[in-house]
UniProtKB/TrEMBL annotation:
The active site is at 251. This is aldehyde dehydrogenase (NAD(+)). It comes from Ophiostoma piceae (strain UAMH 11346) (Sap stain fungus). InterPro entries: Ald_DH/histidinol_DH, Ald_DH_C, Ald_DH_CS_CYS, Ald_DH_CS_GLU, Ald_DH_N, Aldehyde_DH_dom. One of its GO terms (molecular function) is aldehyde dehydrogenase (NAD+) activity. Keywords: Oxidoreductase. Belongs to the aldehyde dehydrogenase family. It catalyses: an aldehyde + NAD(+) + H2O = a carboxylate + NADH + 2 H(+). Its EC number is 1.2.1.3.
């Protein structure tokens, strides 16, 4: 039986790629269930040229098309809603994520299209208090061709977070999804065209980063590159985009601290940490990975987290398509090896850590054949007797898997110092009933997003981005994202009466004083 073949979406239609096709694997079974066409440098140039041509034409990019853009974004939300069953199925199949996660996440994506449609309809143009008889206002104009590079962990969510403001601003957009999970992103091309998006405005070009992403980032007609991914890849693409002086936005690595104070609602904190740590098998940039617990409640919190982890592991013995499955596999063999390496280094290599639960890849049982996929259980690490886990690699490096380090603290100042003991600064959380402490500590944690008594909340209106170079530059969501995808254009109109024209004669022969500025 031949496998389904997914083609590039370029210039408003499906096209054959000229690179070697990409096999798309189901991480739960290790089976290749589809192939995807891959874009070469020539495919990239064709798509960029077409995108630039439609941008210059102005059908989508002109200020006169603002209302049309709002209509299309609202129609896209409706099309996305109609396609939810298919999109959820694809997300589960290509990521290995549990159906219960995708059924909660994917329907929320319509909010981004609706939010930016509303911004288009309600945005205002500022008028400036310029001196003299001048009327000066500014408006936001699109950049041109912009590139979005998205990762494997949230294929649709991260694509839509970037795509909605980029399209709302009037740009032509080219999306380069992860070669591990390209299929749901390709469906966006058809859905947006059905919603009324003009051909050529949006293209989807899967392919390996070293070929496709590099060709996009270095193309002279590309005016912006926006990536969510690893720190190494982000820095590489940023350097490429910089050579063309293209704008650059990046949401990169994370190692989120969670501070649990003794006065917190401990049961709620345990539930919140478990969600933040183990949703998506820990493969999120804001995953709760460094859990800092006040000494007085440390045993209680560790016991509660162990209970949650064992419950999750007990219900992983189901296919991700089973609604009762609690957590799926990691996305690939490579990712599994990386997580294993960090855990093994901490537990058996340096012997700095003890695994309270988990700690090794899951082996097959009579009930479920874990060996077919890339399964790693929820893992809780604490300091080994007489050792300090804070000296381990797993404390410092991003695992991108279901692995947490739990460490005690005694004072608020110590908690803040431990929370900031990282090169990353993307997300963090504080659990306490003390309002003053919540404010104080959240202000001191070096992160672009800090949650109090919750974790991993995300809304189209709420800025989302890191504050250190390892976690990226710029921000997503809100008006900031719409402004990122635009440039400010200032218009100045002189409404002085004709008899005042002499004030504009710089080189008059009477020596009269003229204006400056």
């Amino acid at each position: 039986m031949s496998l389904p073949v997914y083609r590039l979406w370029s210039g408003g239609q499906e096209k054959e790629g000229t690179e070697e096709p990409i096999p798309v694997e189901n991480p739960a079974t290790g089976e290749v269930f589809a192939t995807c066409q891959s874009a070469s440098a020539q495919d990239v140039d064709d798509a960029v040229q077409a995108a630039h041509a439609v941008f210059v034409k102005g059908t989508w990019s002109s200020s006169a098309a603002r209302a049309q853009r709002a209509d299309v974004l609202e129609a896209a939300a409706a099309k996305l809603t109609d396609a939810l069953p298919e999109l959820i199925r694809l997300e589960v199949q290509q990521t290995g994520r549990a159906t219960r996660e995708m059924q909660a996440q994917v329907p929320s994506l319509v909010r981004w299209f609706r939010y930016y449609a509303a911004l288009l309809r309600t945005d205002e143009k500022p008028v400036f208090p310029t001196m003299g008889k001048l009327h000066n206002w500014s408006e936001r104009e699109p950049l041109g061709v912009v590139v979005l590079v998205t990762p494997f962990n949230h294929p649709l969510l991260i694509a839509v977070k970037k795509l909605a403001p980029a399209l709302a601003a009037g740009n032509s957009v080219i999306l380069k999804p992860s070669e591990l999970t390209p299929l749901s992103s390709l469906r966006l091309g058809v859905l947006l065209q059905e919603a009324g998006l003009p051909a050529g405005v949006f293209s989807v070009l899967p392919g390996p980063g070293i070929v496709t992403a590099a060709a996009l980032a270095t193309h002279p007609l590309v005016r912006s590159v926006d990536i969510t991914g690893g720190t190494v890849a982000g820095r590489a693409l940023g350097a490429m985009a910089g050579r063309n002086l293209a704008k650059f936005n990046a949401e990169l690595g994370g190692k989120a601290p969670v501070v649990v104070f003794g006065d917190a609602d401990i049961e709620a904190a345990i539930n919140g940490v478990a969600f933040g740590a183990f949703v998506a098998s820990g493969q999120t940039c804001v995953a709760a990975t460094r859990i800092l617990v006040e000494k007085s409640v440390f045993p209680q919190v560790v016991a509660g987290l162990e209970r949650k982890a064992r419950f999750i592991e007990a219900n992983m013995g189901r296919a991700p398509t089973d609604g009762a499955c609690t957590m799926g596999p990691l996305v690939s063999a490579k990712q599994l090896r990386h997580v294993e390496s960090l855990v093994n280094d901490a537990v058996t290599g340096s012997q700095l850590a003890t695994a309270v639960v988990g700690g090794a890849r899951m082996t097959s049982t009579a009930a479920y054949d874990y060996a077919r996929g890339y399964y790693f259980p929820p893992t809780i690490l604490v300091s080994a007797e007489g050792k300090n886990i804070l000296d381990s690699r797993v404390w410092k490096e991003e695992a991108f898997g279901p692995v947490i380090v739990v460490a005690p603290f005694e004072t608020e100042a110590e908690a803040v110092a431990l929370a900031n003991d990282s090169e990353f600064g993307l997300g963090g959380a504080v659990w306490t009933k003390d309002l003053s402490r919540a404010f104080r500590v959240s202000q001191q944690i070096r992160a672009g997003i800090v949650w109090v008594n919750t974790h991993h909340r995300n809304d189209p209106s709420s800025p989302w981005g890191g504050v250190t170079s390892s976690s990226g530059v710029g921000s997503e969501n809100g008006r900031e994202a719409l402004h990122y995808y635009t440039m400010a254009k200032s218009t100045v109109i002189n409404y002085a009466a004709p008899e005042d024209a002499k004030a504009e004669d710089w080189f008059n022969d009477g020596g009269a004083t003229v204006r400056y500025g």
